[in-house]
Amino acid sequence: MTEKRTIMEQPVISDRHNELQKAQPVPYRHGGDVWGAIEVAGVSVTEILDLSANINYLGLSHQVKKAIEESIDQVVHYPDPQCRRLIDALADHFAVSPDSICAGNGAVDLLDHWLHAVKARRVLIPEPAFGQYERAVAAQGGEAVRLQLEEKGHFRLDVEAWRQALQKENCDAAILCTPHNPAGWVWTAEERQAVLTHLTSAPVRLLVDESFLDFLPDGRLLSCCAEAAKSDQVAVLYSLTKFFAIPGLRLGALIAHREIINAIVRRRDPWVVNHLAQVAGIAALADRDYHRKTWEGLPQERDYLFQRLRDLPGLSPLPSAANFLLLRIEESGLSSTEWTKRLRRRGILVRNCNTFLSLGERYLRLAVRDRAATNRLIDAMRAVLAEEGML
Protein backbone atom coordinates (compact mmCIF):
# COMPACT_ATOMS: atom_id res chain seq x y z
CA MET A 1 0.00 0.00 0.00
CA THR A 2 1.31 3.46 -0.89
CA GLU A 3 2.30 5.41 2.19
CA LYS A 4 0.56 8.77 2.46
CA ARG A 5 2.62 11.77 3.49
CA THR A 6 1.76 15.36 4.13
CA ILE A 7 3.35 18.07 2.02
CA MET A 8 5.64 19.08 4.89
CA GLU A 9 7.00 15.63 5.75
CA GLN A 10 10.53 14.52 5.00
CA PRO A 11 12.59 11.48 6.03
CA VAL A 12 14.91 12.05 9.00
CA ILE A 13 18.56 11.24 8.20
CA SER A 14 20.20 11.95 11.57
CA ASP A 15 19.42 13.29 15.04
CA ARG A 16 21.27 16.50 14.33
CA HIS A 17 19.50 16.91 11.00
CA ASN A 18 16.17 16.40 12.74
CA GLU A 19 16.98 19.14 15.25
CA LEU A 20 17.89 21.52 12.44
CA GLN A 21 14.66 20.73 10.62
CA LYS A 22 12.60 21.55 13.72
CA ALA A 23 14.38 24.90 13.99
CA GLN A 24 13.55 25.81 10.38
CA PRO A 25 10.06 27.03 9.40
CA VAL A 26 10.22 25.33 5.98
CA PRO A 27 11.90 21.89 5.61
CA TYR A 28 14.29 21.40 2.71
CA ARG A 29 12.49 19.31 0.09
CA HIS A 30 14.83 19.38 -2.92
CA GLY A 31 17.86 17.42 -4.08
CA GLY A 32 21.53 18.30 -3.74
CA ASP A 33 21.91 18.42 0.05
CA VAL A 34 25.40 16.92 0.09
CA TRP A 35 26.18 18.80 3.30
CA GLY A 36 23.54 16.92 5.27
CA ALA A 37 24.44 13.63 3.60
CA ILE A 38 28.07 13.60 4.68
CA GLU A 39 26.95 13.32 8.31
CA VAL A 40 25.01 10.16 7.52
CA ALA A 41 27.49 8.47 5.21
CA GLY A 42 30.54 9.46 7.25
CA VAL A 43 32.51 10.51 4.16
CA SER A 44 33.80 13.74 2.63
CA VAL A 45 31.87 15.78 0.08
CA THR A 46 34.17 14.56 -2.71
CA GLU A 47 33.21 10.96 -1.95
CA ILE A 48 29.47 11.61 -2.27
CA LEU A 49 27.87 10.65 -5.57
CA ASP A 50 25.03 13.13 -5.93
CA LEU A 51 22.35 11.95 -8.33
CA SER A 52 19.62 13.90 -6.54
CA ALA A 53 20.35 17.22 -8.31
CA ASN A 54 20.03 17.46 -12.09
CA ILE A 55 23.40 19.00 -12.84
CA ASN A 56 25.40 18.60 -16.08
CA TYR A 57 27.57 15.50 -15.74
CA LEU A 58 30.52 17.32 -17.37
CA GLY A 59 30.88 19.40 -14.23
CA LEU A 60 32.27 22.92 -14.11
CA SER A 61 33.48 24.32 -17.43
CA HIS A 62 37.21 25.05 -17.52
CA GLN A 63 36.45 28.44 -19.05
CA VAL A 64 34.02 29.25 -16.24
CA LYS A 65 36.52 28.19 -13.57
CA LYS A 66 39.23 30.32 -15.19
CA ALA A 67 36.93 33.33 -15.40
CA ILE A 68 36.04 33.01 -11.71
CA GLU A 69 39.68 32.68 -10.67
CA GLU A 70 40.69 35.72 -12.74
CA SER A 71 37.86 37.80 -11.24
CA ILE A 72 38.23 36.88 -7.58
CA ASP A 73 40.06 40.10 -6.68
CA GLN A 74 37.15 42.13 -8.07
CA VAL A 75 34.84 41.08 -5.23
CA VAL A 76 36.10 44.11 -3.32
CA HIS A 77 33.62 46.06 -5.51
CA TYR A 78 29.84 45.92 -5.56
CA PRO A 79 28.52 43.79 -8.43
CA ASP A 80 27.10 45.51 -11.49
CA PRO A 81 23.52 46.27 -10.39
CA GLN A 82 22.29 46.15 -14.00
CA CYS A 83 24.20 42.97 -14.95
CA ARG A 84 25.08 44.70 -18.23
CA ARG A 85 27.50 42.20 -19.75
CA LEU A 86 25.52 39.21 -18.51
CA ILE A 87 22.25 40.59 -19.92
CA ASP A 88 23.94 41.20 -23.28
CA ALA A 89 25.22 37.61 -23.32
CA LEU A 90 21.77 36.28 -22.44
CA ALA A 91 20.19 38.45 -25.15
CA ASP A 92 22.50 36.86 -27.72
CA HIS A 93 21.72 33.40 -26.39
CA PHE A 94 17.94 33.89 -26.58
CA ALA A 95 17.97 36.18 -29.65
CA VAL A 96 15.80 38.78 -27.88
CA SER A 97 16.21 42.40 -26.83
CA PRO A 98 18.18 43.03 -23.61
CA ASP A 99 15.31 45.07 -22.18
CA SER A 100 13.19 41.90 -22.06
CA ILE A 101 15.59 40.11 -19.68
CA CYS A 102 16.43 40.34 -16.02
CA ALA A 103 18.89 38.14 -14.16
CA GLY A 104 18.30 36.78 -10.68
CA ASN A 105 19.64 34.78 -7.78
CA GLY A 106 18.51 31.52 -9.35
CA ALA A 107 15.26 30.75 -11.17
CA VAL A 108 13.25 30.47 -7.94
CA ASP A 109 14.05 34.08 -7.08
CA LEU A 110 12.57 35.20 -10.40
CA LEU A 111 9.56 32.91 -10.06
CA ASP A 112 8.54 34.86 -6.96
CA HIS A 113 9.05 38.19 -8.69
CA TRP A 114 7.03 37.22 -11.77
CA LEU A 115 4.07 36.01 -9.70
CA HIS A 116 4.08 39.29 -7.79
CA ALA A 117 4.43 41.41 -10.95
CA VAL A 118 1.47 39.81 -12.76
CA LYS A 119 -0.60 39.61 -9.54
CA ALA A 120 -1.47 35.95 -10.15
CA ARG A 121 -4.35 34.72 -8.01
CA ARG A 122 -5.37 31.29 -9.34
CA VAL A 123 -2.48 29.48 -10.97
CA LEU A 124 -2.86 26.18 -12.84
CA ILE A 125 0.07 23.86 -12.12
CA PRO A 126 0.49 20.31 -13.49
CA GLU A 127 1.03 17.60 -10.88
CA PRO A 128 3.64 16.24 -10.44
CA ALA A 129 5.74 19.37 -10.76
CA PHE A 130 8.60 21.26 -9.13
CA GLY A 131 7.32 21.91 -5.62
CA GLN A 132 8.55 25.48 -5.50
CA TYR A 133 5.83 26.53 -7.97
CA GLU A 134 3.05 25.88 -5.48
CA ARG A 135 4.93 27.29 -2.51
CA ALA A 136 5.77 30.47 -4.45
CA VAL A 137 2.12 30.94 -5.40
CA ALA A 138 1.07 30.57 -1.77
CA ALA A 139 3.79 32.98 -0.63
CA GLN A 140 2.37 35.63 -2.98
CA GLY A 141 -1.13 35.15 -1.60
CA GLY A 142 -2.41 33.18 -4.59
CA GLU A 143 -4.03 29.77 -4.90
CA ALA A 144 -2.46 26.85 -6.76
CA VAL A 145 -4.87 24.74 -8.82
CA ARG A 146 -3.51 21.28 -9.58
CA LEU A 147 -3.96 19.54 -12.93
CA GLN A 148 -3.23 15.83 -12.41
CA LEU A 149 -1.10 14.35 -15.19
CA GLU A 150 -1.85 10.75 -16.17
CA GLU A 151 0.61 8.16 -14.89
CA LYS A 152 -0.24 5.76 -17.71
CA GLY A 153 0.90 8.44 -20.17
CA HIS A 154 4.19 8.93 -18.30
CA PHE A 155 2.80 12.18 -16.85
CA ARG A 156 2.80 13.92 -20.22
CA LEU A 157 0.73 17.09 -20.61
CA ASP A 158 -2.63 16.75 -22.36
CA VAL A 159 -3.03 20.19 -23.92
CA GLU A 160 -6.78 19.89 -24.34
CA ALA A 161 -7.24 18.87 -20.70
CA TRP A 162 -5.03 21.82 -19.75
CA ARG A 163 -7.15 24.25 -21.75
CA GLN A 164 -10.36 22.91 -20.24
CA ALA A 165 -8.95 23.15 -16.72
CA LEU A 166 -7.95 26.79 -17.23
CA GLN A 167 -11.51 27.66 -18.12
CA LYS A 168 -13.28 25.41 -15.63
CA GLU A 169 -11.14 26.52 -12.69
CA ASN A 170 -11.23 30.19 -13.70
CA CYS A 171 -7.45 30.49 -13.59
CA ASP A 172 -5.73 33.77 -14.41
CA ALA A 173 -2.24 32.24 -14.68
CA ALA A 174 -0.49 28.96 -15.43
CA ILE A 175 2.96 27.42 -15.12
CA LEU A 176 4.34 24.79 -17.48
CA CYS A 177 7.75 23.13 -17.53
CA THR A 178 9.52 21.75 -20.62
CA PRO A 179 11.45 19.49 -20.36
CA HIS A 180 9.18 18.48 -17.55
CA ASN A 181 10.52 17.98 -14.04
CA PRO A 182 10.38 15.21 -12.80
CA ALA A 183 9.13 13.12 -15.77
CA GLY A 184 11.61 14.35 -18.39
CA TRP A 185 9.35 14.70 -21.44
CA VAL A 186 9.65 17.73 -23.72
CA TRP A 187 6.72 19.22 -25.59
CA THR A 188 6.50 18.99 -29.37
CA ALA A 189 6.35 21.97 -31.70
CA GLU A 190 2.63 21.21 -32.19
CA GLU A 191 1.95 21.14 -28.43
CA ARG A 192 3.86 24.37 -27.97
CA GLN A 193 1.85 26.08 -30.69
CA ALA A 194 -1.45 24.78 -29.31
CA VAL A 195 -0.64 26.25 -25.90
CA LEU A 196 0.34 29.63 -27.34
CA THR A 197 -2.68 29.71 -29.65
CA HIS A 198 -4.99 29.22 -26.70
CA LEU A 199 -3.59 32.34 -25.05
CA THR A 200 -4.83 34.50 -27.93
CA SER A 201 -8.41 33.91 -26.76
CA ALA A 202 -7.90 33.52 -23.02
CA PRO A 203 -6.94 36.20 -20.45
CA VAL A 204 -4.26 33.99 -18.89
CA ARG A 205 -0.63 34.70 -17.99
CA LEU A 206 1.72 31.81 -18.76
CA LEU A 207 5.14 31.13 -17.28
CA VAL A 208 7.15 28.47 -19.14
CA ASP A 209 10.01 27.00 -17.13
CA GLU A 210 12.77 26.17 -19.63
CA SER A 211 15.44 25.39 -17.04
CA PHE A 212 16.41 22.12 -18.76
CA LEU A 213 15.84 23.11 -22.39
CA ASP A 214 19.53 23.74 -23.09
CA PHE A 215 20.18 20.01 -22.70
CA LEU A 216 18.49 19.51 -26.08
CA PRO A 217 20.68 20.52 -29.07
CA ASP A 218 17.60 21.87 -30.86
CA GLY A 219 15.97 23.15 -27.68
CA ARG A 220 15.90 26.80 -28.77
CA LEU A 221 13.44 25.81 -31.53
CA LEU A 222 10.95 24.80 -28.81
CA SER A 223 11.51 27.89 -26.68
CA CYS A 224 8.94 30.61 -25.96
CA CYS A 225 11.55 33.35 -25.53
CA ALA A 226 10.57 35.21 -28.71
CA GLU A 227 6.92 35.29 -27.65
CA ALA A 228 7.82 36.28 -24.09
CA ALA A 229 9.79 39.31 -25.27
CA LYS A 230 6.77 40.60 -27.23
CA SER A 231 3.73 39.67 -25.15
CA ASP A 232 2.88 40.38 -21.52
CA GLN A 233 0.92 37.10 -21.47
CA VAL A 234 4.01 34.87 -21.79
CA ALA A 235 7.21 34.69 -19.75
CA VAL A 236 10.11 32.24 -19.69
CA LEU A 237 12.00 31.10 -16.61
CA TYR A 238 15.60 30.06 -17.26
CA SER A 239 18.27 28.53 -15.05
CA LEU A 240 21.99 28.59 -15.73
CA THR A 241 22.77 26.35 -12.75
CA LYS A 242 21.68 23.02 -14.29
CA PHE A 243 23.23 23.01 -17.74
CA PHE A 244 26.39 24.85 -16.69
CA ALA A 245 26.84 23.01 -13.36
CA ILE A 246 27.00 26.11 -11.14
CA PRO A 247 24.18 25.58 -8.59
CA GLY A 248 26.35 26.94 -5.79
CA LEU A 249 26.49 30.34 -7.50
CA ARG A 250 22.68 30.71 -7.93
CA LEU A 251 21.99 32.26 -11.34
CA GLY A 252 18.83 32.46 -13.41
CA ALA A 253 17.04 34.71 -15.88
CA LEU A 254 13.52 35.77 -16.72
CA ILE A 255 12.46 36.68 -20.25
CA ALA A 256 9.29 38.76 -20.34
CA HIS A 257 7.69 41.90 -21.71
CA ARG A 258 9.81 44.96 -20.83
CA GLU A 259 7.04 46.44 -18.68
CA ILE A 260 7.07 43.32 -16.48
CA ILE A 261 10.87 43.36 -16.37
CA ASN A 262 10.86 47.02 -15.33
CA ALA A 263 8.30 46.35 -12.59
CA ILE A 264 10.47 43.56 -11.18
CA VAL A 265 13.71 45.54 -11.30
CA ARG A 266 12.12 48.52 -9.52
CA ARG A 267 11.08 46.53 -6.44
CA ARG A 268 14.01 44.24 -5.78
CA ASP A 269 17.51 44.37 -4.31
CA PRO A 270 19.81 46.16 -6.82
CA TRP A 271 22.66 43.70 -6.15
CA VAL A 272 20.70 40.48 -6.46
CA VAL A 273 23.33 38.76 -8.67
CA ASN A 274 26.81 38.63 -7.16
CA HIS A 275 29.89 39.45 -9.22
CA LEU A 276 31.27 35.93 -9.54
CA ALA A 277 27.89 34.61 -10.68
CA GLN A 278 27.76 37.28 -13.39
CA VAL A 279 31.29 36.45 -14.54
CA ALA A 280 30.50 32.72 -14.54
CA GLY A 281 27.33 33.21 -16.57
CA ILE A 282 29.10 35.24 -19.25
CA ALA A 283 31.86 32.65 -19.58
CA ALA A 284 29.41 29.73 -19.57
CA LEU A 285 27.26 31.12 -22.37
CA ALA A 286 30.39 31.71 -24.47
CA ASP A 287 31.79 28.19 -23.99
CA ARG A 288 30.40 26.61 -27.15
CA ASP A 289 32.67 23.59 -26.84
CA TYR A 290 31.03 22.75 -23.50
CA HIS A 291 27.59 22.97 -25.15
CA ARG A 292 28.70 20.67 -27.96
CA LYS A 293 30.26 18.07 -25.65
CA THR A 294 27.06 17.96 -23.58
CA TRP A 295 24.85 17.40 -26.62
CA GLU A 296 27.16 14.72 -27.97
CA GLY A 297 27.65 12.80 -24.74
CA LEU A 298 24.38 13.11 -22.83
CA PRO A 299 22.20 10.84 -25.02
CA GLN A 300 24.71 8.00 -24.72
CA GLU A 301 25.07 8.30 -20.95
CA ARG A 302 21.30 8.64 -20.49
CA ASP A 303 20.63 5.57 -22.63
CA TYR A 304 23.25 3.58 -20.74
CA LEU A 305 21.67 4.50 -17.40
CA PHE A 306 18.21 3.68 -18.75
CA GLN A 307 19.25 0.22 -19.97
CA ARG A 308 21.15 -0.70 -16.80
CA LEU A 309 18.18 0.30 -14.63
CA ARG A 310 15.72 -1.59 -16.82
CA ASP A 311 17.80 -4.75 -16.43
CA LEU A 312 17.29 -4.73 -12.66
CA PRO A 313 14.22 -6.54 -11.25
CA GLY A 314 11.40 -4.35 -9.97
CA LEU A 315 12.70 -1.13 -11.55
CA SER A 316 11.06 0.71 -14.48
CA PRO A 317 12.68 3.91 -15.80
CA LEU A 318 10.58 6.35 -17.84
CA PRO A 319 11.89 7.69 -21.16
CA SER A 320 13.40 11.17 -20.86
CA ALA A 321 14.68 13.97 -23.09
CA ALA A 322 16.49 15.68 -20.21
CA ASN A 323 19.51 14.89 -18.02
CA PHE A 324 17.55 12.83 -15.49
CA LEU A 325 15.26 9.80 -15.32
CA LEU A 326 12.14 9.18 -13.30
CA LEU A 327 12.34 5.63 -11.95
CA ARG A 328 9.37 3.58 -10.78
CA ILE A 329 10.49 1.33 -7.92
CA GLU A 330 7.15 0.02 -6.63
CA GLU A 331 7.70 -3.57 -7.81
CA SER A 332 11.04 -3.76 -6.02
CA GLY A 333 9.17 -4.13 -2.73
CA LEU A 334 10.95 -1.14 -1.18
CA SER A 335 9.56 2.37 -0.72
CA SER A 336 11.31 5.42 -2.12
CA THR A 337 12.26 6.41 1.41
CA GLU A 338 13.87 3.03 2.06
CA TRP A 339 15.74 3.15 -1.26
CA THR A 340 16.96 6.64 -0.44
CA LYS A 341 18.22 5.61 3.00
CA ARG A 342 20.03 2.50 1.80
CA LEU A 343 21.77 4.27 -1.06
CA ARG A 344 22.69 7.22 1.16
CA ARG A 345 24.47 4.84 3.54
CA ARG A 346 26.58 3.88 0.52
CA GLY A 347 27.42 7.50 -0.23
CA ILE A 348 24.90 7.90 -3.06
CA LEU A 349 22.16 10.53 -3.12
CA VAL A 350 19.01 10.03 -5.19
CA ARG A 351 15.87 12.16 -5.25
CA ASN A 352 13.10 10.77 -3.09
CA CYS A 353 9.96 11.66 -5.05
CA ASN A 354 7.57 11.34 -2.12
CA THR A 355 7.58 15.16 -1.96
CA PHE A 356 5.75 15.19 -5.31
CA LEU A 357 2.18 14.84 -4.10
CA SER A 358 0.96 12.27 -6.63
CA LEU A 359 4.07 10.07 -6.68
CA GLY A 360 3.98 8.87 -3.10
CA GLU A 361 6.64 6.31 -2.21
CA ARG A 362 6.74 4.78 -5.70
CA TYR A 363 9.38 6.81 -7.56
CA LEU A 364 12.98 8.00 -7.47
CA ARG A 365 14.55 10.60 -9.75
CA LEU A 366 18.13 10.06 -10.87
CA ALA A 367 20.45 12.53 -12.58
CA VAL A 368 22.48 11.28 -15.53
CA ARG A 369 26.18 11.12 -14.78
CA ASP A 370 29.17 9.54 -16.53
CA ARG A 371 29.70 5.82 -17.04
CA ALA A 372 31.70 5.31 -13.85
CA ALA A 373 29.03 7.00 -11.74
CA THR A 374 26.29 4.93 -13.35
CA ASN A 375 28.19 1.71 -12.70
CA ARG A 376 28.67 2.70 -9.05
CA LEU A 377 24.94 3.36 -8.75
CA ILE A 378 23.99 0.06 -10.39
CA ASP A 379 26.38 -1.90 -8.16
CA ALA A 380 24.82 -0.27 -5.09
CA MET A 381 21.27 -0.96 -6.29
CA ARG A 382 22.16 -4.57 -7.03
CA ALA A 383 23.49 -4.88 -3.49
CA VAL A 384 20.23 -3.51 -2.08
CA LEU A 385 18.18 -5.88 -4.22
CA ALA A 386 20.39 -8.79 -3.15
CA GLU A 387 19.68 -7.90 0.49
CA GLU A 388 15.98 -8.25 -0.34
CA GLY A 389 16.53 -11.60 -2.06
CA MET A 390 15.64 -10.27 -5.51
CA LEU A 391 18.99 -11.16 -7.06
From TrEMBL:
Pfam families: Aminotran_1_2. It is an enzyme of class 4 (lyase). Pathway: Cofactor biosynthesis; adenosylcobalamin biosynthesis. Its cofactor is pyridoxal 5'-phosphate. One of its GO terms (molecular function) is threonine-phosphate decarboxylase activity. It comes from the Bacteria. Its EC number is 4.1.1.81. Residues 47-380 form the Aminotransferase class I/classII large domain. It catalyses: O-phospho-L-threonine + H(+) = (R)-1-aminopropan-2-yl phosphate + CO2. Keywords: Cobalamin biosynthesis, Lyase, Pyridoxal phosphate. InterPro entries: Aminotransferase_I/II_large, CobD, NHTrfase_class1_PyrdxlP-BS, PyrdxlP-dep_Trfase, PyrdxlP-dep_Trfase_major, PyrdxlP-dep_Trfase_small. Decarboxylates L-threonine-O-3-phosphate to yield (R)-1-amino-2-propanol O-2-phosphate, the precursor for the linkage between the nucleotide loop and the corrin ring in cobalamin. NCBIfam families: L_thr_O3P_dcar. This is threonine-phosphate decarboxylase.
